[in-house]
Amino acid sequence: MPNTNPTPPEHPPIRGATPPGLYGFEDETGEPVVGGEAVIPLLELIESRRYQLIGTGFFITSSGVFATAKHVLIAAHERGHSIFTWQLIPQNQWLIRPVLQFSYHDTADVAIGIPSQAIHKETGERLIDTRVRLTTRVHAVGDLVATYAYPDTIIQATEEGQVLSFNPQFYEGRIIEYLPNGRDSVMLPGPCYRTDMVIHHGASGGPVAGPSGRVFGINSTGFDGTDDFYISRIDELLSLEIVVEQDRGESITIQQLAERGAVIIDP
């Protein structure tokens, strides 16, 4: 089992990060929550007891369904490697959970996954995942946007395994352009936004919120040496399905979960 040190002093400054305390998260009642409860790093097991960071995800149901960018999961899956979530459990507890299934959109850079059930390591109780609130509202050019993600992660090898050092931060920018027909026919053919918000390696798949504080997008990609970075909208998540009855092959869409109140989508 890897050791963790959430905010070690050796983390250097990273471009685009906002000052501490500028942004925060709230639960459904408006109470503050720790960002690492709802927004999680995604890890690829590259060999026994060795992980590497592949991106960021965020819970959209209290039972563990998370959203991320499609390219984050596809690359690890094609390598035949298992994918895991790392999750902060206050106070100062954490879990690593294997991802049991995932689904992704045919064209848009969006995906969902489901890890194993979260169980408290000491009490054995079933844990409820903190979910973010979504919105399908089209955001305007010039809107201030921010993401919370894990590009500032340090993984060090030790004789016992690894030390995983996570330093999640907010990154902000503004929308430059809305592209309803996608950026191109290969990399980002789905509807997306062009922004000047820096998307570092490891931030892919992180949630993007606008002025309302609701998540409307997912970090996708950027061009090195430029200030052009792209966000896929969350709308395409709604058609994705998860299997709920494995033996009978029964599935349910994210749209259906929203209609039942399991996913929160505000105007």
**Ends distance:** 42 Å
- Structural class assignment: mainly beta
Strand order of the largest sheet: 4-5-6-9-8-7
Q: What is the N-to-C order of secondary-structure elements (H for helix, E for strand)?
A: EEEHEEEHEEEEEEEEEEEEEEHE
Helix content: under 10%
CATH topology of the domain at 134-236: Thrombin, subunit H
Question: CATH superfamily assignment of the domain at 134-236?
Answer: Trypsin-like serine proteases
| Total of DSSP H or I helical runs spanning 4+ residues | 3
CATH architecture of the domain at 134-236: Beta Barrel
Mean pLDDT: 88
Radius of gyration: 17 Å
CATH C-level class of the domain at 134-236 is Mainly Beta
Largest sheet descriptor:
6 strands, antiparallel, barrel
Contiguous low-pLDDT stretches (5 residues minimum) are none
Question: How would you describe this structure to a colleague?
Answer:
This protein is mainly beta. Helix content is 7%, strand content 42%. It is built from 3 helices and 21 strands. It has helices at residues 35-38, 70-78, 254-259, and strands spanning 3-4, 25-26, 32-33, 39-47, 50-59, 66-68, 82-89, 93-104, 111-115, 134-135, 144-149, 153-157, 162-166, 169-179, 192-195, 207-209, 215-222, 229-233, 241-245, 250-253, 265-266. Strands 4-5-6-9-8-7 form a 6-stranded antiparallel beta barrel. The protein has a 6-stranded antiparallel β-barrel with strand order 11-14-15-18-17-16. Strands 1-13-12 form a 3-stranded mixed beta sheet, with no helix packed on it. A hairpin with a 5-residue loop joins strand 16 (207-209) and strand 17. The longest helix has 9 residues, at 70-78.
